[in-house]
Design brief:
Immunoglobulin-like; TIM Barrel; 9 helices; elongated; alpha/beta; 6-stranded antiparallel beta sheet; 8-stranded parallel beta sheet; single chain
Length: 550
């Protein structure tokens, strides 16, 4: 363990030192805009904690009390306090009860099977066969994504601890009719249903007709240990589907159906009751993020308006409409627009692949874009190709005035695990900030996400990493995202970008590299002048211009 800690502390060993040192004056505020993720309730904050948050960040996503939020805004009136809602999935038992009773037809479904024979409007027993997807044969499995309901009635239950992944109502859709599933034999495909479920009209259906079933959050994944979180992008969550290992049943909201009022009401309540400035819209995506069938397998939602699986861009278009509805609803009720920041900007960035960049731009359906779009784990230590694709998104956003907001690790509740005050966090945060600097532009709208809180010896307190105050200045060279490798140092896997008052180096590879500089630079961590540095794997380094000018 001692050897590991030493190696992390010396993550960017500087050799050789020059005979003289140097000094610099840290900035009064971070060189580039920061925001913070504050997981969990924070019952004990000092005045200094709140002051540091107010002075160093643009906004937070967290669970502060109204008194804490008011204290932060008193110090910095421009500060924005945000609280969490899930933008694409139900979250709690109460959410399930609401959508089942008011918005059932606004929930995403998937193509699960085909009718084996024609049925009239009174038939309650029939057979279905697995749907075969010719375009995605790797996804085909013999098991049909249908389950029998485990409780009676139309709703998954109003009792405590129900609905859940063990207590639920299950239904299918054929044509425009919904049918409650009472029994299902997964081997033979024989099914017994209640017709005309949830107010739909029983009608004739033909052999071969498509059979749809609901979608849920969370195909089954593994739980990672702390070290793997920093190298593989965070915890992997269990499934919240019928029979799954999660506790709560969690449906997927169809963004092109009328569920906007449901989420707008949540935002209004939070802004009135908790006095926040808006919300953090988690898992805001274009229909590909962690969507599961009822058997815990990755699945795709169905677009009933076009009778095919959702195109990524069409799903995103629905998300745009949702943004506009929430904004206008809050403006009408409170006389001001809410601050809306979303999470899960990713490689579905370009138009044709999801077009998530459009969420940061004014469009005809959405005149007011998101205030920021978080790229969770976008600056994490990970495989080089994945890291590079995220930096290219950041570069494009910065060069086009879009408020991309990568965070160096998780942005959800598991971000609590990234707060430890130890060398492992220090290495990851340094790598993240140096990576961020490869993509920034002067006066761009991009922000970097980090964690204001640290944890040590049973205490949780706010501390700002000193590197954010280094006077690195602004980029003096910029290349287009597709030319990112122009920043590579010849014959090395190390990226270098020059700034008006220094330079940034990032080694995303698994190789240790010796970097020889063309002149001496000041290391702001040691206050020594250096001409050569050793870059261990997955490290980032900021150097400042030599005060002597040599």
């Amino acid at each position: 363990m001692k050897k590991t800690i030493v190696s992390l502390i010396s993550a960017a060993l500087l050799v050789p030192f020059l005979a003289i040192g140097g000094d610099f004056k840290p900035l009064d505020k971070p060189q580039y805009k920061l925001y913070t993720v504050c997981a969990g309730k924070i019952p004990n904050t000092s005045d200094e904690d709140l002051r540091l948050i107010a002075k160093n960040f643009e906004f937070y996503h967290g669970k502060f009390t109204t008194e804490q939020a008011d204290a932060i805004r008193k110090i910095n009136p421009a500060f924005k306090c945000l609280t969490y809602i899930n933008s694409t999935y139900t979250r709690s038992e109460e959410d399930v009860r609401i959508v089942e009773s008011k918005y059932r037809e606004g929930l995403c479904m998937m193509l699960a099977a085909n009718l084996q024979q024609s049925i009239d409007a009174k038939c309650t027993k029939f057979s279905v066969a697995p749907y075969v997807n010719e375009k995605r044969k790797a996804m085909n499995q013999a098991a049909i994504a249908i389950r029998a309901s485990t409780i009676e009635g139309d709703f998954s239950s109003y009792q405590n601890d129900k609905p859940s992944t063990q207590f639920y109502v299950f239904w299918i859709r054929i044509g425009d009719e919904l049918m409650r599933v009472n029994k299902f034999d997964a081997v033979t495909g024989e099914i017994e249903v209640t017709r005309g479920f949830s107010g739909s009209k029983p009608t004739l259906h033909n052999s071969g007709d498509k059979v749809f079933s609901p979608l849920y959050l969370g195909f089954e994944r593994i739980k990672l240990n702390r070290e793997d979180q920093l190298t593989m992008g965070g915890d992997k969550y269990p499934g919240f589907h019928p029979g799954g290992p999660g506790k709560f049943l969690r449906y997927v909201l169809d963004p092109c159906k009328d569920t906007y009022q449901y989420q707008a009401d949540i935002v209004l309540q939070l802004m009135q009751k908790d006095r926040v400035d808006g919300v953090w819209l988690d898992t805001f995506n274009c229909g590909v993020f962690n969507i599961s069938d009822c058997l815990g397998r990755a699945a795709r939602p169905w677009d009933f308006s076009k009778n095919k699986e959702y195109a990524f861009d069409d799903f995103r278009f629905g998300q745009e409409k949702k943004i506009t509805f929430i904004q206008n609803f809050i403006k009408e009720k409170l006389g001001k627009y809410p601050i809306l920041v979303a999470n899960n900007l990713n490689d579905d960035y370009e138009i044709g692949k999801g077009g998530m960049k459009l969420l940061l731009m004014p469009t005809e359906v959405k005149p007011r874009p998101l205030e920021a779009f978080c790229m969770e784990g976008g600056l994490a230590i990970q495989k080089v190709d994945k890291w590079k694709s995220r930096i290219k998104v950041l570069m494009d956003a910065a060069q086009n005035g879009l408020a991309a907001a990568p965070v160096w690790e998780n942005a959800g509740s598991v971000s609590f695990n990234s707060e430890a005050d130890n060398p492992l966090r220090d290495k990851a945060e340094r790598f993240g900030y140096a990576s961020f600097l490869l993509g920034v532009e002067k006066d761009s709208k991009t922000l970097m996400g980090t964690y204001a809180f640290y944890q040590s010896e049973g205490k949780r307190f706010v501390k700002i990493h000193p590197m954010y105050y280094y006077p690195i200045g602004f980029p003096i060279e910029t290349v287009k995202p597709e030319a990112i490798d122009n920043y590579l140092i010849k014959d090395l896997p190390v990226y270098r970008r020059s700034f008006t008052k220094g330079l940034v180096l990032v080694n995303p590879s698994d190789k240790e590299c010796e970097v020889k500089l063309d002149k001496s630079f000041l290391d702001p961590d040691t206050h020594q002048l250096v001409v050569t540095i050793i870059m261990p794997p997955s490290t980032g380094k900021i150097l400042l211009t030599n005060p002597s000018g040599k």
